[in-house]
Inverse folding.
């Protein structure tokens, strides 16, 4: 069980994002083939690709947080010693965590409104709450990843994370 949790922690976003990219490429490739070779367009391909893209967008926020890939001012942070950098990052991660914890209830309300109204997608007929769950899942995953980074940096501030 520990190996499974460790694997999920290490590779969840990467696997989902690679699968999403591959699915979008295959679906649009089939669409192009059907449209230009067979002369018949698929009615559902663009809609499904759009929904996969939405999911990939929200999952990528969590991935970037996990890998510390974000817009930041590296030169300013580099001026600090190791512990100072960690303090700066703890403050930064605290604000990020507050933001995503703030956004989660709004994403939940957004999802619940989709569940209540029962809207389905026009071409595929799937429930729209499958698509509108993306912000909630993305914000929860991002909050978890920010919390993980916060703990690492906080340990460095306390002197336990130093090599």
């Amino acid at each position: 069980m520990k190996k499974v949790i460790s694997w999920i922690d290490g590779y969840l976003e990467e696997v989902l994002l690679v699968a999403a990219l591959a699915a979008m490429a295959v679906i649009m490739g089939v669409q192009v083939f059907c449209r230009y070779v067979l002369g018949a367009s698929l009615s559902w391909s663009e809609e499904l690709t759009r929904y996969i893209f939405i999911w990939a967008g929200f999952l990528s926020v969590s991935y970037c947080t996990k890998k510390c890939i974000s817009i930041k001012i590296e030169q300013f942070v580099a001026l600090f010693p190791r512990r100072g950098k960690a303090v700066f990052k703890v403050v930064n991660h605290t604000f990020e965590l507050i933001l995503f914890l703030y956004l989660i209830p709004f994403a939940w309300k957004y999802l619940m409104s989709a569940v209540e109204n029962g809207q389905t997608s026009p071409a595929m007929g799937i429930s729209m709450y499958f698509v509108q769950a993306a912000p909630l899942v993305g914000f929860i995953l991002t909050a978890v990843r920010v919390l993980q980074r916060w703990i690492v940096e906080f340990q460095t501030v306390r002197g336990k994370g130093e090599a």
Notes: The first helix runs from residue 2 to 38. The two ends are 29 Å apart (CA to CA). The mean pLDDT is 89.
